[in-house]
Amino acid sequence: MTYKKLLYSYSQVYFENDRFYHLKDETRPTRYYSNYLDYKLLPSLVSLKEDLLYLKVEQKDYPTDYGMLFFPEKVDLPGEIQNHLRVADFHLEKHLIFTCSIDNLSLSKKAVNGISIRPLSVDNRKCYLEYKYQQNLAYGKTYADEMLVFNEKHLPEPGSTVYLAFDGNQIIGDLTAWDYGQFVEMDDFSVKENYRGQGIGSALQKVASDGFPSAILIAEEINRNMYQHQGYEEVSYYWTALRSSDRN
């Protein structure tokens, strides 16, 4: 199993053919990462054009007009495909996959006095839903409302554990840990701006990674130095293409 396939092993496939998996979630129509084509093999330019038409029809009733494509792991895009996508207003992005032994993970050793780390529970669920809603408003009220309905029904998602950082009764950070056997992916990570630089993010990661041999994550090139400084090593990559009037 490739790293990319491992990282998306909890995803539900809507449709599959010999070229791609189609991920589609009509309960979250504005969320790009819930609605996309994931290619098994690099498509020809002719096939790519056909697939984009297919995706457009599938999403014709969505409130926003967008398209997202995932390409196979460790495959660079030929010039003709890059050119076609750019002319069609797609933004291309390279996603890096990093891994690190938990024993080698270099995290801040600052003491976080007065801050507690707790898993999501019945007692703090309502507070967390409001915290995430306020975060998601940065992407528009439609998106925030859509995610609130989903989160109320589905959090925590199968395979995941949500960890919260509290200052008293106030949530000031969160992290979702995904269990991939020997790997833990620490995703959807945030700390409130006025609490950053105090070791709270490291405290969340330490709790979330406890009991796992290794950590795995996906990052953009801009964050390479930060993760390498923490001890992560690049093991793979893949490309995505996104067309949207308001990429977020």
Automatic annotation (TrEMBL):
GO MF annotations, alphabetized: acyltransferase activity, transferring groups other than amino-acyl groups
SUPFAM superfamilies linked to this entry: Acyl-CoA N-acyltransferases (Nat)
Pfam family, one: DUF5613
Residue ranges annotated for the N-acetyltransferase domain, each copy included: 115-248
Name of this chain's protein: Acetyltransferase (GNAT) family protein
Species of provenance: Streptococcus uberis (strain ATCC BAA-854 / 0140J)
